[in-house]
User: Which sequence fits this backbone?
């Protein structure tokens, strides 16, 4: 690194055993907000309650001047303005998005980065045109392997200056539910969700959902940019390459019952029959079961599942609990149709990615 | 406290000298988000980027069933539905709101509560009906002193179960710019900003802007509820009553120039002439000057002020900086027409309220 990179970027590190959250991590937490857990009540998350993770700054883009290029291994490169994109076939998909780093701050030891607890998730109705149609129009060549997506957001990360870019395997990019979205919940994308146009790859963690999209490049070799090769890897040590983070592992969240304490967020619930509700999702297959524990994972009971509203949208669940006075640690866990089940205790990885340990909610019954 | 209160609420405390941010504070930071500082570019903050502080949970209110009561020391108590409220005279005010705890996490030692750094602010266009008209209709009696506002949000705080309530001196409540707002930036209030109706008291810190408003009660004695008498007090020790927190002290914020590092948020700027821009506000009087330091407060130069868009909305400012390579700590400070000036170093108070030390932004010029 030159002096500039050393001044701005620290190497990746793991917090010490008793090290509190640092001001750097807190600054990220103040910028990048989660879903307040009571907002699990909404089938579709209202704008402003959906989680957000912005790597650099939210860019200022004039929609009138915005253009998207489709280039690389194609026979007819394209350059489209927003009106041209919006004139193409339009579809709407309800999709749950979760940050790949969700749960990171619960790991021990804690990887120092965006310090999510449980809340980096949201579900929206995304409207736009299928990417596959655009790629067909451009004519993908026979040797194509990956598609690289470039955003308009720029900054440094671990000493590397970059514009946000992610690669996606061609087979995923050609799925008919992968969208170039310009509307969220029926309105133009808000600035923080990628205005004017973002990528939506249902089922994948948030890093694939490139915001402020300006470039789509078809590649004849695997994309080797920072966000695929260095970041978003599942690994135990700094020097191994690790495995890529891709689809969301199953997770259930409980809408915390009763009323909270301001500071501790511990919940107070009146004795009697309490309805416990929440949502569960997986990027691998529909959720097939949700289980609830009222004794911190000692025993589990099945929850009743509501209908699956869309292949990659969270599924509602509910169960009843006859609460008697005392202090409880509620836990919930989901299993999907591909056989993935949430662990009660989290396996550790060095970047704190794809954590799906069972959420805990402390409740005092009176 | 009974067992229930002891289980849910910890006493107020001050962090130890080297104590990192706790998981409790982090949980609040993940829920209650700030304005990403690049959003200082917008005259009016888009919904979802405006700061939020929710004491308990965002309540679920059906607007069709919502009613507001006006009661207490009035000759004609009122009960109004949303349509009736919206049929009254409507005005729109552009107002900057800031959390009274903004800057708390920069205090040393740090009061343990919502750990804001610099970003708990936003400016919106609030539309609704003046409170004064409703109070005139209800007929405030001669002995009235305070008006108490009750929200629909409920929880515990420091061992005290409560519905969020704040009192406001009658003279403030009768100002013609105090609103019962049901729209933000031209749309119905989002759930997190108090839907369907909230109070707006221009110039005051956020605790006065009661969300999810359901009750207005005129009192013939001073309101003595928790949020006025226990919370939101300026004091040095636990056992003194302290002074109430009221209006916003002046503050300037700089829109961080250049591009950021993901983790440290240090900015990288290219050498040459750099335009520095930002916003400044005060709840006491219009901002009269903004000054910028590029040497961490050693020397200051005046910024050029843009027009004041409304009495209690932030005012834009700009200045040019000829940046030569090196590392800099930029600071900005404002002074208002009432003679309040931002300090470079923050005075300390036990609850971490009304902090307005000059923001610092670390910049590396290359």
Assistant:
């Amino acid at each position: 690194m030159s002096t500039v990179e050393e001044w701005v970027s620290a190497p990746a590190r793991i917090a010490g055993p008793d090290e509190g959250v640092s001001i750097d991590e807190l600054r990220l937490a103040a910028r990048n907000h989660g879903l307040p857990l009571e907002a699990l009540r909404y089938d579709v998350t209202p704008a402003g309650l959906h989680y957000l993770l912005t790597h650099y700054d939210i860019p200022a883009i004039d929609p009138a001047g915005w253009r998207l290029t489709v280039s690389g291994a194609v026979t007819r490169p394209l350059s489209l303005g927003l009106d041209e994109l919006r004139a193409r076939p339009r579809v709407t998909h309800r999709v749950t998005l979760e940050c790949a780093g969700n749960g990171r701050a619960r790991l021990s030891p804690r990887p120092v980065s965006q310090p999510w607890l449980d809340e980096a998730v949201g579900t929206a109705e995304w409207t736009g045109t299928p990417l596959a149609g655009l790629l067909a129009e451009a004519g993908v060549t026979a040797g194509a392997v990956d598609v690289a997506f470039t955003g308009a957001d720029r900054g440094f990360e671990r000493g590397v200056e970059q514009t946000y870019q992610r690669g996606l395997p061609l087979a995923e990019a050609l799925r008919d539910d992968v969208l170039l979205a310009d509307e969220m919940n029926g309105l133009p994308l808000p600035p923080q969700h990628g205005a004017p146009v973002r990528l939506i790859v249902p089922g994948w963690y948030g890093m694939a959902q490139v915001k402020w999209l300006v470039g789509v490049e078809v590649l004849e070799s695997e994309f080797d940019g920072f966000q695929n090769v260095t970041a978003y890897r599942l690994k135990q040590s700094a020097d191994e390459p690790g495995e890529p983070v891709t689809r969301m592992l199953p997770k259930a969240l409980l809408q915390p019952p009763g009323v909270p304490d301001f500071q501790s967020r511990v919940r107070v619930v009146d004795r009697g029959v309490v309805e416990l509700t929440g949502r569960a999702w997986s990027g691998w297959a529909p959720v097939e079961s949700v289980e609830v524990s009222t004794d911190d994972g000692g025993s589990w009971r099945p929850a009743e599942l509501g209908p699956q509203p869309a292949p990659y949208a969270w599924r509602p669940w509910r169960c009843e609990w006859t609460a008697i006075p005392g202090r409880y640690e509620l836990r919930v866990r989901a299993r999907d149709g591909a056989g993935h089940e949430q662990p009660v205790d989290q396996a550790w990885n060095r970047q704190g990615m794809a954590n799906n340990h069972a959420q805990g909610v402390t409740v005092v019954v009176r």
